[in-house]
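Service request form, structural biology core

Requester: graduate student, group of Dr. S.
Request type: structure prediction, single chain
Budget code: on file
Notes: please return the result as structure tokens.

Sequence provided:
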Amino acid sequence: MKKIIIGILLFVSSALLNGQVLDNTFGNNQFLAAQMISVTIGGSFPVTGTFPASISERVDQFVTRMYLEVREKAIKSTNDPKLLKQIQDELQNYTLRGIKLIRASGEEIEVDLLRFRRTGDFKYNPYLKNDDVIIFPNNNLKNNFFTVSGAVNNPGIFFYVEGDSLKDALELAMGINEAYEEVTKAVISRLSYDGETLVNDTVDINANIKLERGDQIKVVAPEPQRKNFYVLVLGEVKYPGTVPITKNKTTLYDVIQAVGGFTDQASLRRARLYTGNSLAVFLEKQYGVKLADQPDLEDVQLRNTIVRLESMLMFRMSNVYPEDSSYFFLENQLRVLTEGSSLDFTKILDPTSDIANYIVKSNDVIIIPAISHSVFVFGQVARPGHVTFVEGKDYKYYLKEAGGLGELAVPEDLMVIKGGSRHWISPIEKEVKIEEGDYIYVPKVRLRTFRTYAVEYSIIVSMLASLATVALVVFNIFSK
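Core staff response, request fulfilled:
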């Protein structure tokens, strides 16, 4: 595959050398032709050779033009997505630093196009002259690098050039980030050649210190806490949306006050708070919240990975029987995904209550649904669906309004599912107050065919036969 990519690049280079760039860029205009010069590119660049340039071009403009023309032709050479990705990666494998510009007179000029793009200083990006030669170094960031991290605007890994200083590094990192205060120190960590010794040197950020290959620079400063802390409130409140909060002092009562309180249609019994650690996928389906419109909600794939990891950690040293593992995983995922959702909002209007003083965290999502005005009856009833809620009526009333029980219903297993907690309660065994938003589920008789009975009985017979065999072996042993 590498040979294919190189072959494509060589083909493009040949096309350029055959004058296609000259024809496409400058045409046949004699005046422009009089302004043209010849420039050679060598070293580690996507295309090498001698090409026409304009006397008004600087190095950055020229090499960018060469790169874009090569890239355009290379992309058109294949429709294979994998090959296209590899070609693009190969084309981008060059550095903007440590470039040598050699004049026809023998003069050598150090060119640093990255610093030019960072600072706008043209001394790093000189004009071209006829017969200039531009040599690109090998882009070896594995061994020829330094890093900058901490309180800077553009942390990252940079190509090391002999003579680089701390000042140069900070310039490439686009200076100190103004969000940080009292930034005066940097720590330069320098590893020995054999990788066995690490020396950390704390220096003034204005010190003129020469760097070495592999230096790791961290500009130290206390992390600013002026961050975008907020919670999202949806549903039946007067002013739904985001609410700015403190890092760890804003209460749930404060948040509700900030959104103007609840509307008359708010169902506090079914209100929920989902923490920033909760999976928010269902918000899009259940409440119309578009995750793409909420950039601070974490990546769904990452959140799913966290859920799986959490399940594995919980299960690793458990005493759960294998046949119970599926149920355990279900419960554990619900624990992770619905963290914080069991708060009782019916008491939140009392500022002295525990829920009112619950400390919210950034990225919490608070959902206040509307009053349902109905009870949902489903399962083995004649007309499953919503039945208008009537205060004080028991489950029998709602079954009657849903058309009564079906022939295959199992009334003794009937369940009331509470709309707030999703708690299943048998109204046969315990008196249950029906509330708006509740569910009533009527299960169905399990239909069993001859095949079902045969399979079950065959298992029982097989087990009995095994036990009989074991008993016979034991009897024979002890009868001797």
